[in-house]
Amino acid sequence: MADNRQYHLWIPEQEIDSIDKSPTGRSNQYDVEHSEHGQKLSQGLKSVVDFFQHLQSSSSLDENDLITFKVILQDKEDLASQKDFIENEGLTINAVKDHRHAIVSAPRDVFNNLQGRVDRYKEKGTKKDFQYIQEFEPFTAEDKKATSVLQYVKNNPDAVSIDVQVVLLPDMAPDVQQRAESNISDRIRAGKGIIHNEPYRLSDGTSIIRASMSPQNVDKIADDPRVYWVERTLFFHGIQPSIVSPLSGGLQLDPNIDISALPAVVVLDDGVSLPDHLQDIVPVHWQASGCLKGSSFGSHGTLVSSRVTFGYLGMHLADPYLTPRARIIDAQIADADSVPEDTMLKRVREAVENFSGVSKIFNFSYNASEPIEGTEMSLLGSEFDLLSRKYGVRFIISAGNHNLFESQDSLKDIVAEDLSQIASPADAMLGVTVGAIVGVDHPRSLSKKNELAPYSRRGPGFYGFYKPDLVAYGATQFKNGNIPPDPYALCLSQTGYCAPAGTSFTAPIVAGDLAQVMTVVPNNDVGLAQALLYNRVIPPYDRTGMTQEEMDLAGNLYGRGLPSPENSMYSSEDRVTFLNSGTMNRLTKKRVKFHIPSAIADLKVKRGEKKIRVTVTCIARPPVDRTKGSEYSAAYISASIHRLNSNGVNVVDNPSVSDNRNKWDTCYHFSNEFSSFDSGSWEVWLELFTRWGIADDEEIPYSLVITVEDLTSAGNLYSEIVRETAGRFSAVQPVRINIR
After folding, report:
1. Closest CA to 675 of 587, 738, 723, 612
2. I want to staple 694 with a disulfide (CB 3.0 to 4.6 A). Which of 137, 169, 619, 690 is the partner?
3. Is the distance from CB of 637 to CB of 662 less than 8 angstroms?
4. What is the predicted pLDDT for the residue at 106?
5. Across-strand partners of 394?
6. Positive or negative, the Cα torsion across 559, 525, 348, 145?
7. Using alpha carbons only, what angle is made at residue 702 by residues 699 and 703, rounded to the nearest 5 degrees?
8. What is the DSSP letter of 355?
9. Residue 210 per-residue DSSP state
């Protein structure tokens, strides 16, 4: 750490102006003729009835069961504005595909009343709100089968069984849900299917039945109006590397390090078994319910843990001592090379319930073997987000691996393949997804130094959102599968060293980075530590002259960049970081002040040279809801830089090309450089936007980091800010964390 390090500066509430905001609504009028439009709606409801009656004749449905169907709004409408109208008709909005497509349900008597009102609208033009609905349609099996199911059946026409997860309709009444679980399970068994476990539920209450059945029975079960979605069961895999060299002497821990004061990271894996003399680093060994300890215990988790606690171990082998940066909570959730999603989900949830009070950082280095579908949030990714919201934890997740490097001849060809997209649960929007880049040039590698590793999956994530979030250095892998020795890839097992390839071993680097940074933020705030880590990344590529399209592509490969915990933890004389965290609601905007000193504003520079760089990172923690489809994330916070120009006029100074300023994403992150400006208080304006279901006064947590960097090398930025602001911003003192 540089000798000139300084503590970050905290932005107190008196430096934040709150501005009242009045939410606005709108109402569209459509040039529709009620008799013609009403006839279309009436015909749509008739097709729903016909479909339901067909189901009654072929299954055990009766008059007491729900009628489920699709409501499609007019092109200019959205469900947020028409939610009250739909629910006032007695319909339950069970799920949303996008802003104008909803899956709704109603008891038979409510549905009959709806038919009557639509008929009166058709005949007399009453109930004009029906103009906002484009049509009603049946909700059929073809709407419910995931691409993974369709593709499997296409590629395996003779398959007699397929392992699937049947997701029941969300938001059913408890008694209806229980009856549906029992009835659908019976129907699966009646069709010679096998129920693998009892129905289980996500943290939001959604019921899921995992079963193996014939493709024909999948169609019948998917037609059931109480079924929302059917997808192939995912299985999660870790990499099982071999040891390439035995342990040498040494490997002693630095005696000056108080291990009990180190932050803790929960490693969700197959167990941890470090060398005996390093066992103090792992004070807790725990197994999830039903998890077995087999002969391969710790073969993956031990390697992962060594990366968490020692970082880039290969760069420090010549040091007299090993310097740990985190303690490990060993939470075993895997007991086989392949763990099904239902089992993995329940075990992870149990681990979070047990350890969220001890640590806020959970490393998960397992992925499905297939890429995400993109239009449906993965079950495990959704569960990670729900747990993150409920318990205030952060999941550090590997982006996943593929074998495309074996068949492709260039990294460009690999990236162009759809099969290289991230794999579940890396689509979790509140998680930190980590890809791999190569740290050393190897002559036979498809990837050069600082390029995406040839096996590392890339973004985008769910519905095109930003993924991965960060990258870290890892091994490369040749076309024949061989992995060359690499100091950035070295891991430690119980008996030796190895340098395995995989994002399994880059995610724990970031988990340890985050643990380091968390020691210098107030109240051990993991959200603020995450924002600091994002704010001070090192881009692995040259951004000069990049277009927005090129920047978006780079983001899908490298995220925001390579973390640098040393940069993130402290300010210096030429780089000052301001911190703030809190909550926002839809009724108030915030204008957060930070300071630019006159000493740098008045400096003369050559024409075209920049004097400062301002980097803004704002991370929100919005409510999420898998049943909302593309509306999964319910809120986002926009951020913009504002200052007074030489004429005293407030101007917005966001860059024309930026890293990550996308609506409904969980993070706004961008930089801008300035050459001519006035000193004094500048502002970052924050504004919260929400989707339907979020009350105007509901508070959404955020973490804000603003870094001002002196590009002139004058060397007195920090001192001048402190002198000119005279105590307005207080220095943030680092903390020591004791984990018991």
Report:
1. 612
2. 690
3. no
4. 93
5. 361
6. negative
7. 155
8. H
9. E
Which H or E run includes 145?
A: none
How many angstroms separate the Cα of 332 from the Cα of each of 266, 298, 592, 619? 10, 9, 43, 30
pLDDT of residue 715: 76
Q: How far is CA 430 from the centre of its chain?
A: 4
* pLDDT at 659 (0 to 100): 83
**Rounded to an integer, what distance in angstroms lies between the CA atom of residue 194 and that of residue 212?**
5
Helix, strand, coil tally for the chain in percent (to 5): 30, 25, 40
Q: How far apart are CA 425 and CA 366, in angstroms?
A: 8
Q: Is 262 exposed, middle or buried (0-12, 13-18, 19+ CB in 10 A)?
A: buried
Burial label, 704 (beta-carbon count in 10 A; 0-12, 13-18, 19+)? buried
Going from the C-alpha of 228 to that of each of 107, 144, 198, 568, the distances in angstroms are 17, 6, 18, 44
CA atoms within 13 A on the CB side of 246: 2
Closest C-alpha among 144, 125, 100, 121 to residue 45: 121
φ/ψ (deg, to 5) at 115 = -60, -40
The Cα–Cα gap between 190 and 497 comes to: 53
CB neighbours of residue 593 within 10 Å: 22
CB atoms within 10 A of CB 715: 12
Structure token digits, residue 465:
């959102």
* Per-residue pLDDT at 61: 57
Tokens 């197994």, residue located: 287
The candidate with the shortest Cα–Cα distance to 221, out of 262, 185, 177, 263, is: 185
* Full strand arrangement of the beta sheet holding 667-674: 667-674, 612-620, 700-710, 575-584, 9-10, 730-731
* Angle, CA 376 vertex, CA 370 and CA 380 arms, to 5°: 65
Q: What is the largest CA-CA distance in the chain?
A: 91
What one-character DSSP code corresponds to residue 208?
Answer: E
Task: Please name the residues in contact with 30: beta carbons below 8 A apart, sequence gap of 6 or more.
Answer: 74, 131, 132
Counting as low any pLDDT under 70, the low residues of the chain are: 1-3, 24-27, 57-64, 240-244, 247-250, 294-296, 646-648, 734-740
Q: Burial level of 312, CB count in 10 A (0-12/13-18/19+)?
A: middle
Structure tokens at 487: 């100091």
The residue length of the chain stands at 740
Q: Tell me the two tokens of residue 571.
A: 């300010």
d(CA 563, CA 540) in angstroms, rounded, equals: 10
Identify the pLDDT of residue 638: 96
- pLDDT by residue (tens digit) across 69-115? 999 999 988 888 899 999 999 999 999 988 899 999 999 899 999 99
CA distance 148 to 197: 21
Identify the helix (H) or strand (E) that includes residue 138. Answer: strand 133-138
DSSP 415-478: HHSGGGB-BTTTT-TTSEEEEEEE-S--TT-SS-TTSBPTTB-B---GGG-----EEEEE----
Burial 543-562 (b: 16+ CB within 10 A, else e): eeeeeeeebbebbbbbbbbb
Q: How many other C-beta atoms can be found within 10 angstroms of the C-beta atom of residue 697?
A: 9
Q: How far apart are CA 69 and CA 29, in angstroms?
A: 25
Quote the tokens at residue 481.
């599968």
Q: Give strand pairing partners of 328.
A: 265
pLDDT reported for residue 676 = 85
Structure tokens at 423: 């794999």
Range list of H helices, 368-424: 379-391, 411-416
* CA dist., res. 130 & res. 520, Å (int): 56
Helix/strand/coil for 49: helix
Per-residue pLDDT at 2: 44
Cα atoms in the Cβ-side hemisphere of radius 13 Å centred on 652: 9
CA dihedral 84, 85, 88, 90 (to 10 degrees): -110
How far is the C-alpha of 144 from the C-alpha of 599, rounded, in Å? 63
